[in-house]
Amino acid sequence: MVKYGLDYTRCRWILPLLLGIGVIFGIIALAGRGWLESQTLPYVHQASLWESCRRPEQGGEWTCESLMGYAWGRAAAATYLVGFILLVICFALAIIAFAIDTLRFNFIRGIGGLLFVAAMFSIMGLVIYPVKFSTEIEMTGINMFSWAYGFGWTTAIMEICLGFFFCCLPNYEDQILGNVKPTYFYSSP
User: Fold this and answer.
1) Residues 130, 84 contacting (CB under 8 angstroms)
2) How far apart are CA 36 and CA 31, in angstroms?
3) How far is residue 81's CA from residue 75's CA, in Å, rounded to a whole number?
4) Is 185 contained in some domain?
5) pTM score, two decimals?
6) What is the pLDDT along the chain (189 residues), one digit of tens a residue?
7) Is residue 178 part of a domain?
8) Is the distance from CB of 35 to CB of 49 less than 8 angstroms?
């Protein structure tokens, strides 16, 4: 943003916009039924963060079991949900921070730190789920962790990357606010 001379007034909403996209990806991960799916025929297993569903054969009725009956299921859901709530809080704080005409750069660095904490909780939930699911739940055939689980990891990666951006942005305070004289590389003979 600074190196290439992009105007601060035009680019100030990029980071909150990226946080908003992270929130949308987190909602998809929380609501999606594709955390685990059967990879090959017959498609007999499908799971979300909240429940595991199976059917006896192709075209049969799905029977679902709640994962909240397992301690690891509650732990995975709780840690991922805490990470998501912290992400939503960071999104709201970023909108507030960038809506004010004079940026408070220490406030922005705090948002970056909170994003790292959110990423830590999200990653804990994303690691607990597959490790315990594959050992505790009986699976038949070939199964894969699917699209909704991928959205969860995308959210966690976005939290880490945006945390770095929010923490490093105050280092360029003078350049962003236009307090530095431009350097010209042309000198008269």
Assistant:
1) no
2) 13
3) 10
4) no
5) 0.83
6) 445 444 555 667 888 899 999 999 999 999 988 888 877 766 678 888 899 888 877 677 888 888 898 999 999 999 999 999 999 999 999 888 877 766 666 788 889 999 999 999 999 999 999 899 888 887 777 778 888 999 999 999 999 999 998 888 776 665 555 566 666 676 666
7) no
8) yes
Token output for 108 = 């922005």
CA 177 to chain centre: 29
Nearest CA to 29 out of 129, 131, 100, 170 is that of 129
Instruction: For residue 4, count other CB atoms closer than 10 A to its CB.
Output: 5
- Identity of the residue numbered 95: I
The token pair at 51 is 């429940």
The count of structural domains within the chain is: 1
DSSP string of 21-51, one letter each residue: HHHHHHHHHHH-S-SEEE-SSS--EEE-SSE
Apex 139 CA angle, 137 and 145, nearest 5: 90
Pull the structure tokens for residue 165: 């951006």
What is the span of the domain harbouring residue 104? 10-34+71-139+147-170
The answer to whether residues 34 and 26 touch, using CB atoms and an 8 Å cutoff, is no
- Residue 103 domain-assigned? yes
Q: Which amino acid is at 5?
A: G
Amino acid at 140: T
Residue 180 region by backbone torsions, left for phi larger than 0, else alpha for psi between -120 and 50, else beta = beta
Q: Retrieve residue 119's tokens.
A: 């990423």
User: In this structure, is residue 51 part of a structural domain?
Assistant: no
